[in-house]
Amino acid sequence: MKPLLEVRDLRTTFAGNPATRAVDGVNFTLDVGETLAIVGESGCGKTVTALSILGLIDEPGRIEPESVVEFGGVNLLTLEARELRRIRGAEIAMVFQEPATSLNPVLTVETQITETLRAHRTISRTAARARATDLLELVRIPQAAERLGAYPHELSGGMQQRVMIAIALSCEPKVLIADEPTTALDVTVQAQILELLAELQGRLGMAMLLISHDLGVVAGLADRIAVMYGGQIIEQASAAAIFERPMHPYTEALLKAVPRLDRPVTRLSAIAGSVPNAATWPDGCRFHPRCPHAWDRCRTSHPELTPTAAGDVRCWLTDEPHRRVR
User: Fold this and answer.
1) DSSP labels for 148-174?
2) pLDDT at residue 324 greater than cutoff 60
């Protein structure tokens, strides 16, 4: 069966001297009702990938013409702005990072929910207000009717995030893109938001693209995981395969940085170095300057994303298993 959403050879470049290729040949699919998590450190290209899917890249950014984002048999990147606006927010919705900055500080909660409804549905003001109340109740905001008149600064971070989710769900989209939905929230509220997303996905039957820097956050939600580094997907497999036997050294390193309750840990593992600048990706494997297993081929030749029995991986070590010390 054809996937609900298919991304092929997605490349997004920002003008400069030199130009910055923030997303460089990303490919993935998303099926009906499925959750795909895209995981990686800041600067790996996760958010730019999400924004590119919805055509939200402004100058000096540019989505390269060979890129394809196919939804419902149509390449979204070839649509006129008006046609894309009809899909954006209605068929594919996004929960942005940092609700405190994503919500308009001078508009009430009611206005921000109802404007999305009225943009995509033929609905009266009274019906839109009633729908807004229902949505706030859906995302478990107490005293929903009274909260409609609140401004974002009058709400806690967790409440703001719930309002963002309510806005995204207002038109019952087929795909929800959740970009770091638990950023800046304390662990208790994080758990509540993740539980809410899982419940709403099951209730509404939507597919979800979940973006996070933390494998621990996506562990209980994701069906599949795509690990990004250097603007590319470097490993993609089922969530079970990623957690049981990761194939790429970067995935291993991310897992070692996640706190574990089933074993005593005095100090968490850290990944040496930092994500390279997208304007000057290193030659060869882009992770090799930080990889403890790198060898000569890693430094000179760029690996392709290669299918294996467990999933896809972009690593020369799969060709040279005897060089790997686990």
Assistant:
1) TT--GGGS-HHHHHHHHHHHHHTT--S
2) no
End-to-end CA distance of the chain: 38
The single residue listed with the structure tokens 């900055």 is: 101
Q: How far is residue 314's CA from residue 305's CA, in Å, rounded to a whole number?
A: 4
Identify the band that residue 322 occupies on the pLDDT scale cut at 50, 70 and 90: very low
Write out the two tokens for 33: 């009702």
| Model confidence at 254: pLDDT above 80 | yes
- 20-30 and 224-229 beta bridge pairing: unpaired
Residue 125 belongs to what H/E stretch? helix 125-138
Q: Count other C-beta atoms under 10 Å from residue 153's C-beta.
A: 10
Angle (nearest 5°) at CA 67 between 63 and 69: 105
Please give the structure tokens belonging to residue 14: 């920002």
CA 102 to chain CA centroid, Å, is 16
Q: Select 5-91+173-323's CATH number: 3.30.479.10, 2.60.40.10, 3.40.50.300, 3.40.50.2020.
A: 3.40.50.300
pTM more than 0.90: yes
